[in-house]
Amino acid sequence: MENSKIKPPLKGRVGLYSIGHPHYWNQFEGLHDRMIHYGKFIENRLSEYAEVHNFGMVDEESKAHQAGEWFNQQNVDILFCHASTYAMSASHLPIAQICKRPVVVLNLQPALQMNYAKTTTGEWLAHCVACCVPEISNAFRRARIPFHVVSGLLGLEKTPEISVANEVTYHHPDAIEAWKEIEEWAKAATVTRTLQYGRMGFLGHTYPGMLDMYSDFTMIEAQTGLHVEILEMCDLMKILPSVTEAEKKEKLKQVEDFFVISEDSPADPLAKKPRPEQLDWSCQVAVAQEKLIREFDLDALTYYYRGSDGNEYERLQEAFILGHSLLTGNGIPCSGEGDMKTAVAMKVCDTLDLGGSYSEIVATDFVDQTILMGHDGPFHIGISDQKPILRGMGLYHGKWGSGVSVEAKVRTGPITNLGITQTEDGKLLAISNQGMATDGEILRIGNTMTPVKFDKKPTHFMNEWFAHGPTHHVAMSVGHNTSQFQKVATLMGWDFASVT
Description:
By secondary structure, the protein is an alpha/beta fold. Helices cover 35% and strands 24% of the residues. The chain has a six-stranded antiparallel β-barrel. A five-stranded parallel beta sheet has the order 2-1-3-4-5, sandwiched between helices.
């Protein structure tokens, strides 16, 4: 992935607290401090993925009220309830009632097993973390508080001196699995915060007639938190004269570093070696596109333009694909055809450092049993299998004008497509599907294209996918990320479906 993002994601804010029973502290020496030590360990691990606000031990109702108000002051995105030992549900329920955020209950036992021969009552209480989780779950359900449970091992690398059991469990599968879940929740909080404070540019209009693309701006703002900044082509055009020769040359150097400049396509007479004047114009526009992003402080962009033949805006949009691919690779995902929902999906993927390349179904290869997926751009350079190719296009199919286009393929290995669609009742629905990008053949016509093999045969996969009413575009990410995307949808309040 690209490291130099124009606008790095905002770190999610996690509210963490431990729970316990106050009567234990005087009865069993060292137990309270031991529980605090476990909580600090969780805080330090969580800090790898999020900004952590640790209130500490909550063992009575008055502290719960203080914690809830404190978490509100910290403006946290999610709450982590660390079940350190048995705790009464009434002593901490007010936290989630006051700070109305989703709760993840951490049911993490310190040791694989207790040292049965040497375990005292106080030692046992350090390991009976699951004892209160049914009670917590019951209280949250009856109070209509959304919650999720992560069960497993704490994952310590060193056994505390007070313990008589072996608590070194960081290498155990149940610790690794639990912390993968925790990491995904923390990263999902990063996505929600980045979207909540983000700005989506809408340049031009949606491709006329693509009914799946249409969404009203209020709905997008209400269900993603993104501010929608409506832009005109003249906003970009007025920036163009400010582009200097030095900036244009620097952009060309960047293009030569990132891309292979093609010769003529061996297959398609429309796909030629880019002419010098095409590259020059595309680089000039690319500089202006980045300046537009910075001027309006954008986190993502969707765009499309169609006007009268030969006008100045048509020539401007002829150069869009190169600049928007560069922006997409630098943390500002750009989606064509005015598809704002897929721009949101691309932003989710990019925030998680998973890519997010603009794609659709291109064709099916019934010999290889793969589905070719891609588009005429933009492409996420960070997930390319090799240097993308720049081709000069005699025309853009289904659009107006000609120019420079990107031909590229997502690297071989696991991929997950994330689509965001709108249901008949106006709600956003996130849909994911997982497959494997193969090293199969692609067309050499100046489009991005990746052959993907799914666990289901293509016909069965497509039937199941289409039944969800998706948009015809998706964001292609690297890795198998359905579990991560589901957590994002949960925190965002979106419905979620998957086809695997």
